Design the sequence.
């Protein structure tokens, strides 16, 4: 059973650092948001990094081995987790470099490739991969860990995420066949693409970038993933599309409806704090 997890944390947190702060946001949190990677912002009653809560949920779901992908300018994440082992996981790190002439790394497909290259012993095994700035539930981690398909993703109900309507419009929508296998992930969808994704019951499924994958099935697509023509990044949905073009039933979709706290800008910090307080997370 899948016990491996890769967390994508190599972004440079540009939206977090550039965004304005809410009037009621504590200045120590503002300073942390401007200085640290967003997954290291201290939150909750104990002031633990946001990523700690993600790791707590992964551990509770039964994961054992974690690789955190960081960028070469991150001077905080690895040193923090080397000094704090209370999450009860085997944590290692892989670095996604920033190529010459660029201001940020090459994207999520490149980040995952770096993670897999750092764990070649995982060949023949499954793993889960997710963002570092979303708080996925224990139940979601369990669903992916226990799923028996070659690969799978969580198919979130767009209306159940607890996100403002204007913001959720930009989320990637999922197209799947009648058996529930993924056909396409549409980034930045227009209205026609959203309507195409709508099921007979009116449900629109969206991806929040959490997947279980087979190491050997996704690796060739990551290696050959092209740069997006506009965003100039190697994007994980593109690699997934390449994989399912080779094997149309490679990735199953698992429907879920629940809130997914997101830490993108400073305005999200207050919302995440409230969410953690509501759950009485005291770790």
Sequence:
């Amino acid at each position: 059973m899948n016990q491996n997890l890769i967390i994508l944390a190599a972004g440079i947190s540009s939206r977090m650092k550039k965004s304005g702060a809410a009037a009621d946001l504590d200045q120590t949190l503002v300073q942390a948001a401007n200085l640290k990677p967003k997954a290291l912002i201290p939150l909750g009653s104990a002031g633990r990094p946001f990523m700690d809560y993600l790791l707590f949920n992964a551990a509770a779901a039964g994961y054992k081995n974690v690789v955190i992908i960081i960028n070469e300018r991150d001077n905080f994440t690895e040193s923090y987790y080397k000094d704090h082992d209370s999450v009860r996981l085997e944590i290692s790190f892989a670095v996604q470099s920033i190529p010459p002439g660029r201001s940020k790394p090459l994207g999520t497909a490149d980040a995952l490739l770096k993670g897999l290259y750092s764990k070649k012993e995982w060949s023949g095994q499954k793993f889960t991969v997710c963002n570092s700035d979303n708080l996925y539930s224990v139940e979601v981690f369990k669903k992916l860990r226990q799923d028996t398909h070659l690969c799978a993703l969580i198919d979130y109900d767009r209306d159940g995420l607890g996100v403002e309507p204007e913001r959720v419009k930009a989320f990637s929508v999922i197209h799947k066949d009648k058996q529930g296998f993924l056909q396409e992930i549409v980034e930045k969808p227009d209205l026609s693409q959203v309507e195409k994704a709508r099921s007979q019951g009116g449900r629109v499924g969206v991806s929040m970038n959490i997947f279980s994958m087979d190491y050997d099935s996704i690796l060739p697509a990551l290696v050959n993933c092209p740069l997006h023509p506009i965003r100039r990044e190697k994007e994980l949905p593109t690699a997934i599309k390449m994989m399912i073009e080779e094997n149309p039933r490679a990735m199953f979709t698992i429907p879920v409806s629940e809130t997914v706290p997101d830490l993108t800008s400073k305005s999200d910090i207050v919302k995440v704090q409230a969410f953690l307080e509501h759950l009485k997370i005291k770790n």
Remarks:
- Residues 79 and 93 are 11 Å apart (CA to CA).
- The chain has eleven helices and twelve strands.
